[in-house]
């Protein structure tokens, strides 16, 4: 109880004024939680505001096309979040008569909603006493209570969940969950936290043992795959562009792109040009970026070149630039279009 009270007192004095904290509307809270997965608040805020502006209710979101949703999401990454968000909105409208689920258990039925997100919505909207456990909570609890279990191992999640649930005040779940996440985001940060001003500095076991920088323990390492993308900007005699929708279930599923030549190994640019000339027989080929663009994703590094191919005939299904910019693209392609053709 002392831990919970101290944490909530800290929160009330230090919390950020965020729009999703000024409501108990489950739609807005759900939207904010999905946006903030793998995303910093500063980056996510304008996206949250844009979604609320364009889709003020779950019915509005469900009624939108997938392309509209993906276009609004453009630049946030992890696009499966947007597709799951859209699918869940349609499920709520079509299967639940537009009534948002009101319990932790029911929320877990929504596509893209796991234990953490369900606990966040259930507690923030309905004050259901279910503790949240995310990266911030792992860090705070691991340090204060000196827990060295590897958080990359699934069974460790149960250990932290049990402790968080024991610490959770039954009658004030919303404030506690907000507080512990905010404490991890603002005070007990991953690197070089200012422990001198921490309200728990006399009780933090990691600080006493001088192992704050060692916790939490996460030993699983992500293997990064290198991929080499050569995008071909095919432009016909009417200055229309050829684009295609990605149907590979991997990255950027259902987003648009230019014709792609991909390889697992780096090729010489002159070899790529020779391949383009042989395969496509364009009127001209122009390398648009001599220095490759490196686009880093969580498990992949993409090394990208863009080639402009001009043709002296009309191409069926090619679209003008005015239509092109309405389509959802991966942000690296969107930025290239904006810099070179707008």
Automatic annotation (TrEMBL):
Keywords in alphabetical order: 4Fe-4S, DNA damage, DNA repair, Glycosidase, Hydrolase, Iron, Iron-sulfur, Metal-binding
DNA repair recorded as keyword: yes
UniProt remark on cofactor binding: Binds 1 [4Fe-4S] cluster.
Catalytic activity: Hydrolyzes free adenine bases from 7,8-dihydro-8-oxoguanine:adenine mismatched double-stranded DNA, leaving an apurinic site
Cofactor(s) this protein requires: [4Fe-4S] cluster
All residue ranges annotated as the HhH-GPD domain in the record: 35-186
EC class (word): hydrolase
Keyword flag Glycoprotein: no
Enzyme Commission number(s) from the entry: 3.2.2.31
Xref: Pfam families: HHH, HhH-GPD, NUDIX_4
Entry function: Adenine glycosylase active on G-A mispairs. MutY also corrects error-prone DNA synthesis past GO lesions which are due to the oxidatively damaged form of guanine: 7,8-dihydro-8-oxoguanine (8-oxo-dGTP).
Stated family: Belongs to the Nth/MutY family.
Designated name of the protein: Adenine DNA glycosylase
Organism: Flavobacterium sediminilitoris
């Amino acid at each position: 109880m002392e831990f919970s009270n101290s944490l909530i007192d800290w929160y009330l004095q230090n919390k950020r004024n965020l729009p999703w904290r000024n409501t108990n509307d489950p739609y807005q809270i759900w939207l904010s939680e999905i946006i903030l997965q793998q995303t910093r608040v500063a980056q996510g805020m304008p996206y949250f505001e844009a979604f609320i502006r364009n889709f003020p209710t779950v019915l509005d979101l469900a009624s939108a096309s997938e392309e509209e949703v993906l276009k609004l999401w453009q630049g946030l990454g992890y696009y499966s979040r947007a597709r799951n968000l859209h699918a869940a909105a349609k499920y709520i409208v079509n299967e639940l008569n537009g009534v948002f689920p009101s319990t932790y258990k029911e929320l877990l039925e929504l596509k893209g909603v796991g234990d953490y997100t369900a606990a966040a919505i259930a507690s923030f909207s309905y004050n259901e006493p279910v503790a949240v456990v995310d990266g911030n909570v792992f860090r705070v609890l691991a340090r204060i209570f000196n827990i060295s279990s590897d958080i990359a191992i699934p069974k460790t999640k149960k250990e932290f969940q049990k402790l968080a649930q024991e610490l959770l005040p039954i009658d004030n779940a919303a404030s506690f969950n907000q507080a512990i996440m905010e404490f991890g985001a603002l005070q007990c940060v991953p690197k070089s936290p200012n422990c001198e001003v921490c309200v728990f500095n006399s009780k933090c076991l990691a600080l006493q043992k001088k192992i704050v920088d060692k916790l939490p323990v996460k030993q699983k390492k992500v293997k990064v795959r290198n991929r080499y993308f050569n995008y071909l900007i095919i432009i016909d005699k009417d200055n229309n562009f050829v684009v295609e929708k990605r149907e590979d279930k991997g990255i950027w599923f259902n987003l648009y792109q230019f014709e792609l030549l991909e390889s697992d190994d780096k090729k010489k640019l002159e070899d790529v040009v020779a391949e383009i000339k042989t395969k496509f027989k364009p009127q001209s080929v122009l390398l648009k970026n001599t220095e490759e663009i490196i686009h880093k994703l969580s498990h992949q590094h993409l090394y990208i070149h863009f080639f402009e191919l001009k043709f002296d005939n009309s191409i069926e299904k090619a679209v003008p630039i005015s239509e092109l910019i309405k389509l959802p693209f991966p942000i690296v392609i969107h930025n290239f279009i904006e810099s070179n053709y707008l």
